[in-house]
Structures are given as structure tokens and as C-alpha cells.
Write a structure and sequence with these properties.
alpha/beta; 11 helices; 8% strand; globular
Length: 206
């Protein structure tokens, strides 16, 4: 079975959904081999409320395994991690001196995927998708891909089109915006995301 490493953005989008615990009912059904980098788990999800609590439950249940550089066993794995991570530092423009640097979690996750030969990165970061393929030959499963997966395996995931659409649009709900600027941004994005869902991701057959 394919192995996946999960980035923070997907955990937050699924885990913070108010009405259902889709982090469990979707992510844990994708594969029995799910991983998260320790840095992402300890730093990027730490203050994410509901998503963090739901992620903790999955980790305790053994459905997601936390990985760190200590899990790099062979010299080959260590060398692969270092080479890929160094390249990604340049790609993302990461400041190594910043312990909470932007895109550091994505870079560490991709490097871990390369070293451990995981097939997929679960992430909604556009740059991460490009660099994961370029640096590590790792494919990316983003939210668009997850929705298509739900559509094509509706009986297995037991999620209706209506519920899938609600999940997809939830991060753009103006009512969950933290400030006026974010509310304006979400309002503009919401209509675009509705059209993408209806016209590209889950088209209703005539």
C-alpha cells in the first residue's frame, strides 16, 4: 500500500471542519501508512485547536506516525534527506536560522518522503507540489485531488456530494475570517471555489 506524508494545511482544512471529523473519516481511509514530520506536528499544528486535538487522537490510535530525523536509519537515507532538504531550502528561500521559518514544514516533509521513499505528499501548497516532484519524484495529493477521490469512491468514504462541497468551501467561509481583510479575501475566493467544485471536481451528470 502507498505511503503518504501529510502537511499542515490539509490537516487544518479537514481537522477544523466544524460539523464532522473528516480528518479521521477521510485521511485515515486513504492509507494505513500515514506519516507526519515531527516539526509539522510540534510547531505548525500546535495552536490549531480542533485540528490539533483530532490529529492527536489519530496519533494516539496509531493511524498516523510521527517521524523525525532520528528515524533515518541508513547512511543512504540520511544523505538523501540532507541533499533534498538543502535543495528545498534554496527553492523555498528558507532562512535556516529561523526555527519557525515559512515553508520549513513542507521542506522537511518532502525530504522525509524522499529519504523513506514515500510515494505521496498530502498538501495544498502549490510550490510544495512542484518541488516535491522536481526534487524527490513525490506526487502530491491536494484538496482538489481529495474531492475527486471522494467522488470516485463515494461508497467507500460514505460522503455525499453536498457534504464534500461543504468541506471544500469551508476554509473560504467569510464567517470564519479573523479580520475584515481576510473576510474580503474569502468572499472573493468563495465564488471561484464554488465554480471549480461544480464545473471541474464533482460535476453533476445530466
Amino acid at each position: 500500500m502507498c505511503r503518504y506524508i501529510i502537511d499542515a494545511d490539509i490537516i487544518i482544512k479537514l481537522g477544523n471542519y466544524e460539523h464532522e471529523n473528516y480528518l479521521d473519516s477521510i485521511i485515515s481511509k486513504i492509507s494505513e501508512n500515514l506519516y507526519i514530520h515531527e516539526y509539522v506536528y510540534m510547531h505548525e499544528i500546535r495552536e490549531c485547536g480542533k485540528a490539533k486535538n483530532r490529529l492527536d487522537d489519530l496519533v494516539r490510535a496509531g493511524k498516523i506516525r510521527v517521524m523525525s530525523e532520528n528515524d533515518l536509519i541508513t547512511e543512504e537515507e540520511k544523505a538523501s534527506y540532507d541533499i533534498v532538504y538543502s535543495g528545498l531550502v534554496n527553492d523555498f528561500g528558507i532562512d535556516k536560522a529561523d526555527t519557525r521559518g515559512k515553508n520549513k514544514g513542507e521542506a522537511m516533509s518532502i525530504a522525509m518522503a524522499a529519504a523513506k521513499q514515500y510515494k505521496y505528499l498530502i498538501s495544498d501548497d502549490k510550490d510544495a507540489k512542484i518541488y516535491a516532484k522536481r526534487r524527490a519524484d513525490v506526487e502530491t495529493l491536494n484538496m482538489n485531488g481529495i474531492i475527486v477521490m471522494l467522488k470516485n469512491n463515494q461508497k467507500y468514504f460514505n460522503i455525499s456530494r453536498k457534504d464534500a462541497k461543504s468541506l471544500y468551501l469551508y476554509p473560504y467561509n467569510p464567517n470564519v475570517a479573523r479580520n475584515l481583510e481576510e473576510k474580503i479575501k474569502f468572499t472573493k475566493a468563495l465564488d471561484r471555489m464554488k465554480k471549480r467544485f461544480d464545473n471541474e471536481l464533482w460535476v453533476v451528470d445530466d
